[in-house]
What does this fold into?
Amino acid sequence: MHNLIAIWTSLTSRLRGVGQTLPPLILRLIMGWEFWQSGVEKYTGENWFADVQTKFPFPFSVIPPNISWGMATWFELAGAILLVVGLFTRLAAYSLLVLTFVATAAVHWPDMIAMWSDLAKGYAITDSGHGNFKLPLLFVVMLLPIIFQGPGKISVDYLLSRALKADPMPAPRADAYAWALAALALSIPLLMLIPAAGAALLVAALVLAGIGRFARA
It folds into this structure.
């Protein structure tokens, strides 16, 4: 049994070692390519944001369509480049996360949700009258590890940290402040899609921050 545990520990430690390099790189390349394609389509295509302007969440609903179209285009193009090279990676990934939530609210979210079954029907690639938020949800799931775990070792961010003699991968901390930060980061985009859930996360972030401060006192 001891030998089996030792073998398992040896295998998992090596997988974790490679996991700091390979999975983040693959995620960055895939998401970079997807957002680059979307940005190029907007750059070369016609502006259709005026058709869904009323569905945009605030404050994007009050931004003129020409401006919001340009913002979306360049956020996707610039964000894609930053993801691929791994520069300001977390900021780029979070910006694209917010953009994905805005797009989901405006284009992919069901118009009416009477019950959970209506929402489940929207988990699809093609819209059959109940929305089609499956693809943007997958984008969110792929962006979250980049935001929380970082770009990995094959990135400009990692090289810059080494050059500045900063720890490129500081030891993880899961204290109350960490959970407050996570709740805050998720609450902002969620407020635009499911306001009640976003507000609940925002309150949770404040409570957790208070707990963290009390624990340190």
The mean pLDDT is 89. The radius of gyration is 20 Å. The chain has nine helices and no strands. The chain has two domains: 22-170, 173-217.
